[in-house]
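Retry 2 of 3 after timeout on previous attempt. Resubmitting structure tokens to design endpoint.
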């Protein structure tokens, strides 16, 4: 069992900088937890406190029911994988994998057995005699991961381990990491600034900003039910579209005479938002385009409950199976995700619809999502 508990964790440096504020998280055995957020949000600092490489200013860190605040890293039952790989250049792959076990006093037979077992898991069997300089970036990363796997540690900590790889290699290594996690079963905490890595790998994601947790949840929770404006804008590629305005008499009133009513399903949200400054959010893929040319007898894509918009195409991005259309709507800029068959050109007028059920409504002051309490009770 490798449960981890962080209670009221704080990190304040000697110069007074408060890097992590009141961090609370319960991590279950075998979970793959990802800390994600922009640079400087405190995610790596939190990981280093768990590893014992940074002192915890306040709060309690527990691993397997044991308080480890004052324990050195080697006594915490953890293995850490760094961004830089940290391989010994003069040693072979075999020797790099075996190095930590030799220091720990394992006998030669046990070391040899573990190296062979780990190299098979990591796909390194044919490279055991090579030096790191003769390996690709992906192979070096496998060696670095293998040094963690070979220790049979209870907990793996990974600090942006894929950031030095090219885009194609990162995609394949993401899948490799998930497979390794399933095979080894160690509780894993992974740090990244890349929300795509977080979404594709995590059991649960911890979104951080300025040293504070913004939301903890599954990838689906964060994508479909963001708790605040920051999470809504950070999670998703392309990011969520936002329109600023005010709710007056159950209507949204925005810039450039933008005005629309809401469906009956949002009546409780509208009551709570009445008279407030708000931000309306909706995902690029939730937008439906009107037909470029309407053939005789063709039905409009607009249905009851859809909100109609009229804008102008600013830029298009063809990405193979999808296309992003950047649209100006007065002073607002939106992104529509569609298919390449929608043949729009820069400067074209564009009509599109958004189902009111796809909307997320955020308080303009607190930036928290305004929810329908009755719906949440169901």
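Retry 2 succeeded. Sequence:
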């Amino acid at each position: 069992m490798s449960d981890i508990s962080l209670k009221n964790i704080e990190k304040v440096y000697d110069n007074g900088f408060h890097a992590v504020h009141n961090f609370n998280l319960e991590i279950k055995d075998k979970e793959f937890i990802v800390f994600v957020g922009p640079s400087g949000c405190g995610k790596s600092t939190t990981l280093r406190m768990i590893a014992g490489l940074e002192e915890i200013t306040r709060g309690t860190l527990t691993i397997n029911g044991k308080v480890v605040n004052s324990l050195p890293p080697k006594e915490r039952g953890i293995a850490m994988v760094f961004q830089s790989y940290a391989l010994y250049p003069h040693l072979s792959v075999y020797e790099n994998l075996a190095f930590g076990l030799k220091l720990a006093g394992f006998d030669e037979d046990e070391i040899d057995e573990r190296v062979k077992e780990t190299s098979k898991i990591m796909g390194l069997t044919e490279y055991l005699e090579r030096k790191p300089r003769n390996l690709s970036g992906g192979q070096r990363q496998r060696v670095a991961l293998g040094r963690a796997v070979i220790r049979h540690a209870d907990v793996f900590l990974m600090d942006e381990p894929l950031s030095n790889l090219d885009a194609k290699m990162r995609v394949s290594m993401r899948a490799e990491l998930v497979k390794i996690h399933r095979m080894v079963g160690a509780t894993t905490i992974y740090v990244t600034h890349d929300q795509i890595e977080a979404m594709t790998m995590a059991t649960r994601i911890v979104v951080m900003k300025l040293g504070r947790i913004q939301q903890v949840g599954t990838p689906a929770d964060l994508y479909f039910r963001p708790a605040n404006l920051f999470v809504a804008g950070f999670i998703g590629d392309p990011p969520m579209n936002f329109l600023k305005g005010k709710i007056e008499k159950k209507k949204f009133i925005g810039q450039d005479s933008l005005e629309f009513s809401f469906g009956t399903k949002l009546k409780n949200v509208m009551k709570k938002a009445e008279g407030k400054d708000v931000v309306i959010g909706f995902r690029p893929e939730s937008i439906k385009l009107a037909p470029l040319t309407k053939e005789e007898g063709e039905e409009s894509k607009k249905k009851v409950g859809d909100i109609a918009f009229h804008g102008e195409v600013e830029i298009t991005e063809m990405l193979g199976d999808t296309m992003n259309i950047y649209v100006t709507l007065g002073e607002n800029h939106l992104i529509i995700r569609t298919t390449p068959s929608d043949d729009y050109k820069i400067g074209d007028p564009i009509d599109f619809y958004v189902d009111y059920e796809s909307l997320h409504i955020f308080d303009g002051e607190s930036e928290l999502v305004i929810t329908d309490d009755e719906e949440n009770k169901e």
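Attempt log closed. The first strand starts at residue 4 and ends at 12.
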